[in-house]
Structure prediction request, 772 residues.
Amino acid sequence: MPFKILSNQKLSENVFQMDVEAPLVARSRKAGQFVIISVDEDTGERIPLTISGVNPEKGSIRLIYQRVGKATAQMAQLGEGDALGYIVGPLGKPTHIEKFGTVVCVGGGIGAAPLLPIAMALKEAGNTIISILGARNQELLILEDDFRAVSDELIVLTDDGSYGRKGLVTEPLKEVCSRDPKPDFAIAIGPAIMMKFCCETTKEFSVPTQVSLNTIMVDGTGMCGGCRVEIGGETKFVCVDGPEFDGHKVNFDLMMKRMGAYKVLEQKAFDNFNNHKCKIGLNQ
Amino acid sequence: MTNSEKLLQQLIEKQNAGELKAKDRYAIPCQDMPAQNGGQRRGNMKEVALGYTKIQARLEAMRCLQCKNAPCVEGCPVRIRIRDFVVAIAEGKDEEALAIVKENSLLPAVCGRVSPQEVQCQERCTVGKKFKDPEKSVSIGRLERYVADLAKSDSDIPKVASPTGKKVAIIGSGPGGIVVAADIRRAGHEVTVFEAFHKPGGVLVYGIPEFRLPKSIVQEEIDVLKKMGVEIVCNFIVGRTRTVKELMEEDGYDAVYIGVGAGLPKFMNIEGEHLVGVYSANEYLTRANLMKAYEFGRGADTPIAVSKNVAVLGGGNVAMDSARMAVRLGAENVYLVYRRSEKEMPARIEEVHHAKEEGVQFCTLQNPKRILGNEQGNVTGMECLRYELGELDDSGRRRPVAIDGSEFVMDVDTVIVAIGNGANPLIEQTTPDLEFNKWGNIVVDENCKTSVDAVYAGGDIVLGSATVILAMGQGRMAAAAMNRYLAE
Ligand SMILES: Cc1cc2nc3c(=O)[nH]c(=O)nc-3n(C[C@H](O)[C@H](O)[C@H](O)COP(=O)(O)OP(=O)(O)OC[C@H]3O[C@@H](n4cnc5c(N)ncnc54)[C@H](O)[C@@H]3O)c2cc1C
Ligand SMILES: Cc1cc2nc3c(=O)[nH]c(=O)nc-3n(C[C@H](O)[C@H](O)[C@H](O)COP(=O)(O)OP(=O)(O)OC[C@H]3O[C@@H](n4cnc5c(N)ncnc54)[C@H](O)[C@@H]3O)c2cc1C
Ligand code: SF4
Ligand code: FES
Prediction:
């Protein structure tokens, strides 16, 4: 199977959007599911990425990814006509979509990408959507227009105030939760630390909150247990039991520690990759 | 002329004269298989056991008494005509020997290397009984490997009958799936094998390491399938990419074989098991084998822990493989922690020997109580308890009993849990009418047929964690039944 890349655009400094052929995945995929891809069939790392959208006619899926390490940096260098090594999926349980009433959707950084299809599905199911999008700075803010289109109310913030409100997503989240009536449901997707604090906020107001976890993975089929997390004291595998869980039950501290498992090695690989890149000067 | 050559020549003369007596046979020394030496192989991934030479194979085969009742065959799960192929080797007819093995076993190069012969054919062997030592039995497994390795890969692509217009889907490309694919394709049906991973072969590729089973051997078997016209589709997860029902109702498959293996790692459920540096054996071995983490930074991109002191929990083949892999990844101390005694270890004897030669330290009658970690969540040690053996339990082995107050801390930075696999629930969750038992294994009848028409299953998903040869045996049975069903 070819997995041909149809387009690969830069959305912001380190965020890219790739449309790539994967007809079998495009056909079965539902909101909330993800794929595992590898840039190279033989030696590449398997990395999980959320399916942010599909084009059924072209049999393609859309991936929005942040350049954080070697694999994503390699992806960023590919263009139309190139191909990924492989794509497997769709993985994970689809989001449970129903009419809750009013739903707050909180997206932090790249988390906006996996959040978008869920917000769209919730909107379609008749919910009122309040979206809160946060990013470190204006450069890193993505998908604002898409969220404006799907939301009844949109609040945009940056950490440094370079665009929209200045501050962290938990502040407007708290305000929205304090309204009367309070929202019926919340979804938070973003860095683990952001999800942790969002959950602490909504817990105060007893607003049920769903999060989508982005642990390190290998197979994505429940075979290795590398993606395990603790949910309400029980061990769960993010790839098969998730990726979405009741945020009030997630042991975020443990999860964050596990996500740092390969930091040193990954940094080395990324540095090597960047050095190598400079030397041959092909990708400036 | 070496001593072995001289001995062989004398024996051949006696054999030709019809004068080779049992006494002579008993006198032939057991032939050890040459191996890379323990120190050298700690530093490489190459196969450890190097296989018999022709002289060794013939000498070993001459140890066989050619028993009338051939008790060894009774011990073989797929009833290979063991006596006959061993006799053929003794007579120098290696090709004939291979043909006999192939009648019943499709993957002799694999089984010769990984089957637990000491609890199968070799356990029953009269020679071992005579010496009251199963390790002195005729080395049937090594002989099987010897003849299998002689085969040139291209020489025998099985014949395929003319097309029948029927289509069969095989889910999972482990040893069971490979055998079913070959047997069904031979009958002229179209066959597609669906595999979740990016490479076919199942546990033979992602679990069992290169140093025990070279990947090229598995690849050759896969290539044979391809040459027979079997289509192999990787990166396809049945239950996610398509369901069993969709394959049958929408994609036109007339029958399905489910051979998805066990594939759900068990943990101990003790404190500290989520710390960084605690792996399931599946994860550790997948990173190391399939993803080639031993070449991290030198071409491969998947990282694995850089460990100094490693504890491996368990006493089976999976534990041995993990421990020996950790040695090769550079750990200074590798401890194999097992709560029973060495005698009860389910691993193949050869693997236990090899692990010891490579410096794996056996800590038997010990079991972890909890895993200790630091602020950053990294493993810093493991608290263990000592055990003693008590009464016999249900499995007929003496039950290990913890000794009160025997706690001690083992200094480790990595812990690999190798205590077995349960059944992966994906197929169960996505195939409504299929019947499963309470452990999540698929229920089948004596033909490996499931509760759903035209759907068959075998291997670890039916048997629980079993063996390569049992998975193949079930595959054979299922394929025969499926061919009968499709012919109706
Ligand atoms: C279900 C799921 C959905 C995801 N969806 C998206 C998405 O839509 N867009 C996106 O940009 N990212 C997504 N991620 C995270 C993405 O998988 C990682 O950013 C990616 O693996 C990094 O690879 P790398 O080689 O570029 O970086 P590395 O050098 O490998 O790592 C850099 C950082 O990424 C984290 N990371 C490394 N490997 C993995 C891994 N296998 N899984 C998760 N995190 C890892 C590390 O903790 C590290 O901090 C998702 C993760 C999961 C589990
Ligand atoms: C480390 C290790 C060492 C072992 N050592 C030995 C040994 O020395 N001797 C011995 O006899 N046995 C050994 N075993 C056991 C032996 O490997 C298994 O019993 C045997 O491989 C089972 O074969 P199987 O046909 O059931 O499939 P498996 O080999 O388990 O393969 C199943 C395949 O199905 C794929 N799959 C799973 N789910 C899906 C899905 N939904 N869709 C598509 N594909 C799917 C998997 O990715 C896998 O490739 C060992 C096992 C392990 C893990
Ligand atoms: S039991 Fe042993 S000695 Fe007897 S036929 Fe079999 S291999 Fe030969
Ligand atoms: S990624 Fe291996 S079990 Fe989830």
Summary: Chain A is about 30% helix and 30% strand.
